[in-house]
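Tip: read the tokens left to right.
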């Protein structure tokens, strides 16, 4: 049953007056019955009490037997549905909580905090983080904001699979804390159900004498906000035997998140004192706290707000992580990760970070940016199929941004001399009134062409190599009408029309132009002599006459350059200033000649492509692709030779280029 249908199921039960405790027990009983275990709700309640003592009894009351018929038909009913039922229950209460915030001076108290933060982690994320963090059977694990125990149950199963004993897991390896009694009790209830289910198998497979009555959940603790200065698991002064006073080999969580506006004054000030690098919001403080709870060589796995990856407010937290920890994996998961949080509200990031005494610059980590999808399953599939790039941790130090990692080879490239050292990159003409001054060639009298109207090159989006000139601009007497209009419109320019009519000295010259706005990355085209270029088609003019413009055109259109420009400016606006900063790789003479010849051919083919018969188009596109690939390998080869890269290093650069292409195509869809 998809999550939304489960919400309707829970909603129906609630409307019929079913009590939460009774519903949860009934679900647990149905789950056990489906697996051949005949327990009553009361037996189960006693068992849970025995295992967890008082922590449990506060949260869930002894159940009245009820029957939940709908489930008997649902064979896919999984154990985590018990916890999810509570999440849905809380979700249905949210409108009341919203209304209460309005009357509570917009600041959240303990009850509201619990109400607002019961948003649980989807299974595919839990599995990913558990697999990456719980690496051997003797590992200790904690979720310091466990809710109903998605991570707890998965970590338990994983430890069992790795061969750990139930007794060790429960008595010393697995810990969970939360401020919500009900959630913690449901976590215990689900774990008890799993124990009952596993009981017989474990006795057989591990030869253990599993006495369920003798087990104790010492590490499952309810945390009181009152006694922790509002901090809950963020509090650092627990008694030495408390589960939050030790460290763990795996710390896994999805921390609570509430906007800063909603945090009470008291909590704000406690956060500032305790988390000087991460006081801005609750999830940042949790990230910091979880790193403290991680032991040396242990791993912290978390799904959290993607804003932690690049908002300036979290700069020092990121700096601390990059400088002092080893990154294992970062997944920029985007929106729609949480089925009950609608639309584009929450952008998530999935992080796995290792604590170490030795942070080496040579460490690499895996990075993945998931596409924007509206269906949860697509993301899960994408993560499993792993569109991951391996990147150097060192590369992050340049910007301390975790969402824009770059391999060190790219940083080498970025240190080379840039395009503006031998070419002028100029913004084109802005007429201030295109409707009046710019026309299509076919709309002006032929005999006025070259007298009043002159060829005008406008932006051509993603078109590369060649675009036909289709427009003309009124440039009679060196643009007299345009300049007069500018002077009238902007009297404060004191007659200096050239502040708007820019770079006149470059009009009619040959060069290379590029589109100002292009969703497929930047595209460069030949600018033939005899035309004026528009602000939407800014242009490059070679100052060094020894450089063949066709060679430069081929170089600029190579995948490496396009990726570099996309990195320099990830938006779809290709600014003149960004193009100026493009690094120029030294390329041997024979390769320059080959690139120029290819560019020449590509210009011709692009022209033919526009005029050819449809049946020839495919063949021309193939020829274009072959030549462009040849250019790519010449440029990459030059970069490799220049920096003496190994094949591995070269491949890293190639992967990075592909990865930027994916990002660029995603950005264009946003
Ligand atoms: C987003 S839920 C995550 C639950 C679970 N880890 C999961 O991923 O499914 C956050 C949990 O944090 C708990 N919580 C909120 N503030 C807390 C605090 N200061 N200390 C400990 N737990 C807290 C909430 O009660 C809630 O159960």
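Filled-in amino acids:
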């Amino acid at each position: 049953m998809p999550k939304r249908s489960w919400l309707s199921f829970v909603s129906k039960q609630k409307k019929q007056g079913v009590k939460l405790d009774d519903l949860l027990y009934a679900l647990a009983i149905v789950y056990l019955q489906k697996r051949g275990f005949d327990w009553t709700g009361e037996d189960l309640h006693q068992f849970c009490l025995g295992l967890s003592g008082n922590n449990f009894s506060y949260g869930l009351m002894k159940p009245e037997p009820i029957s939940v018929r709908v489930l008997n038909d649902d064979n896919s009913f999984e154990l985590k549905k018990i916890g999810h039922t509570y999440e849905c229950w809380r979700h249905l209460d949210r409108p009341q909580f919203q209304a209460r915030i309005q009357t509570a001076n917009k600041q959240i108290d303990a009850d509201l905090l619990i109400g607002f933060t019961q948003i649980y982690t989807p299974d595919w994320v839990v599995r990913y983080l558990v697999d990456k963090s719980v690496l051997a059977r003797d590992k200790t694990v904690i979720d310091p904001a466990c809710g109903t125990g998605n991570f707890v149950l998965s970590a338990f199963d994983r430890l069992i699979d790795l061969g750990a004993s139930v007794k060790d897991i429960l008595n010393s390896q697995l810990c969970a804390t939360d401020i919500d009694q009900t959630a913690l009790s449901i976590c215990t209830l689900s774990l008890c159900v799993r124990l009952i289910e596993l009981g017989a198998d474990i006795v057989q497979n591990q030869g253990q004498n599993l006495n369920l009555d003798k087990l104790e959940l010492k590490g499952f603790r309810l945390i009181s906000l009152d006694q922790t200065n509002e901090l809950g698991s963020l509090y650092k002064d627990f008694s030495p035997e408390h589960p939050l006073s030790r460290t763990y080999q795996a710390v896994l969580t999805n921390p609570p998140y509430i906007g800063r506006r909603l945090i009470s004054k008291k909590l704000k000030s406690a956060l500032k004192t305790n988390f000087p690098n991460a006081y801005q919001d609750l999830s940042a403080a949790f990230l910091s706290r979880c790193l403290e709870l991680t032991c040396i060589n242990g791993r912290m796995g978390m799904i959290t707000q993607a804003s932690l990856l690049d908002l300036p407010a979290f700069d020092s937290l990121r700096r601390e992580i990059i400088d002092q920890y080893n990154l294992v994996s970062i997944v920029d998961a985007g929106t729609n990760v949480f089925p009950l949080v609608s639309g584009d509200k929450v952008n998530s990031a999935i992080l796995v970070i290792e604590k170490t005494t030795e942070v080496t610059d040579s460490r690499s980590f895996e990075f993945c940016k998931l596409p924007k999808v509206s269906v949860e399953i697509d993301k899960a599939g994408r993560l499993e199929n792993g569109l991951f790039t391996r990147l150097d941790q060192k590369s992050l130090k340049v910007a301390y941004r975790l969402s824009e990692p770059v391999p060190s080879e790219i940083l080498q490239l970025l240190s080379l001399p840039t395009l503006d050292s031998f070419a002028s990159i100029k913004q084109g003409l802005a007429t201030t009134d295109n409707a009046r001054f710019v026309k299509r060639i076919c709309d002006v009298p032929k005999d006025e062409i070259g007298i009043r109207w002159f060829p005008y090159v406008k932006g051509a989006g993603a078109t590369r190599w060649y675009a036909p000139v289709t427009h003309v601009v009124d440039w009679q007497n060196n643009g007299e009408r345009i300049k007069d209009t500018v002077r009238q419109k902007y009297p404060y320019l004191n007659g200096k029309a050239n502040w708007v009519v820019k770079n006149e000295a470059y009009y009619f010259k040959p060069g290379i132009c590029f589109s100002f706005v292009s969703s497929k990355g930047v595209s460069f085209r030949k600018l033939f002599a005899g035309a004026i270029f528009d602000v939407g088609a800014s242009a490059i003019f070679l100052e060094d006459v020894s450089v063949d413009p066709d060679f430069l055109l081929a170089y600029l259109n190579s995948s490496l350059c396009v990726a570099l420009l996309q990195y320099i400016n990830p938006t779809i606006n290709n600014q003149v200033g960004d193009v100026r900063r493009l690094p120029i790789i030294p390329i041997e003479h024979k390769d320059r000649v080959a690139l120029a010849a290819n560019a020449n051919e590509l210009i011709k083919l692009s022209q033919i492509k526009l005029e050819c018969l449809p049946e020839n188009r495919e063949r021309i596109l193939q020829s274009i692709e072959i030549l462009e690939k040849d250019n790519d390998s010449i440029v990459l080869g030059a970069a490799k030779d220049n920096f003496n890269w190994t094949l591995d290093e070269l491949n890293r650069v190639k992967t990075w280029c592909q990865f930027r292409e994916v990002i660029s195509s995603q950005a264009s869809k946003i």
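The two ends are 31 Å apart (CA to CA). Confidence is low (pLDDT under 50) at residues 203-207, 666-670.
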